[in-house]
Amino acid sequence: MKTVVVTGVSRGLGLATAKRLSADGYNVVGLSRSLSDGYKALMAEQEGRVHFIPFDVGDLDAIPGVVSSITKQHGRIWGLVNNAGIGADGILATMHKTDILRVIEVNLTAPIIFAKYISRGMLAAHEGRIVNISSIIASTGFHGLAAYAASKAGLEGFTRSLSREVGKMGITVNCIAPGYMETEMTGGLDVHKMASIRRRAPLGLPEVEDVTGAIALLLGPDGNRITGTVITVDGGSTA
User: Fold this and answer.
1) Would you tell me which of 59, 117, 135, 163 could form a disulfide with 227, CB atoms 3.0–4.6 Å apart?
2) Structural domain span for residue 18
3) What is the CA radius of gyration of the chain?
4) pTM of the entire structure?
């Protein structure tokens, strides 16, 4: 059974990813700061195939240790899904420096460090999959999300470069850029704002399951020759 590490599994896309991958037969190791009821229920449903480690991905110095611990307990890591991310909504000129740095650490630096240590086992085995979760905001921009957009754009550049670095060793590295999804987060937006967002997506807003399908594709055998790319899942809103 192949082991996949997924960060940010407490809710939303991370939780949905853990559900999809465990259903597909992977051994899933989920990392989040706290254990949610949803993930706890998944662990009970998929006993022995879904695991949890409380971890703050912003604790960069602790990443090598947690990767080592996972490897000792579960064996070589086949896949990494860098899903954990945060936003800091506000005008850049008035944002606190610590908030800016936190966004960069969680959204960009942490995925790089996770990939650094997990890819070592992949290089030794000449196979592996890395999937980084970006956002359409990396390319479209968004008012009040300058630091967030920068972190996601950086993640896409990192993905392309790393794919060239490790491709000859049988490792694929890709990004998925979701658009607005039908989640609890968008459910809290102004009704008129949501109506405008929905009008821009000719296929309708994607569900989290649409994004997990793309993740499953990249981790599975059908993704063997896909690397260094950004797959957009947004219902056509950026077409």
Assistant:
1) 163
2) 3-233
3) 17
4) 0.95
In the chain, how many domains are there? 1
Distance CA 101, CA 238 (A): 28
Tell me whether residue 239 is in a domain. Answer: no
Residue 238 lies in a domain: no
At residue 91, the pLDDT reads 92
What secondary structure, in 3-state letters, does the chain show?
A: CCEEEEECCCCHHHHHHHHHHHHCCCEEEEEECCCCHHHHHHHHHCCCCEEEEECCCCCHHHHHHHHHHHHHHHCCEEEEEECCCCCCCCCHHHCCHHHHHHHHHHHHHHHHHHHHHHHHHHHHHCCEEEEEECCCHHHHCCCCCHHHHHHHHHHHHHHHHHHHHHHHHCEEEEEEEECCCCCHHHHCCCHHHHHHHHHCCCCCCCCHHHHHHHHHHHHCHHHCCCCCCEEEECCCCCC
Of these residues, 26, 39, 148, 180, which one is catalytic?
Answer: 148
- Spatial separation of the C-alpha atoms in residues 158 and 147, rounded to whole Å: 16
Question: What CATH number does the domain containing 96 carry?
Answer: 3.40.50.720
pLDDT-based confidence at residue 183 (cuts at 50, 70, 90): low
| Percent over 70 (pLDDT), the chain | 97
Instruction: Establish whether 26 is a catalytic residue.
Output: no
Q: Is 118 a domain residue?
A: yes
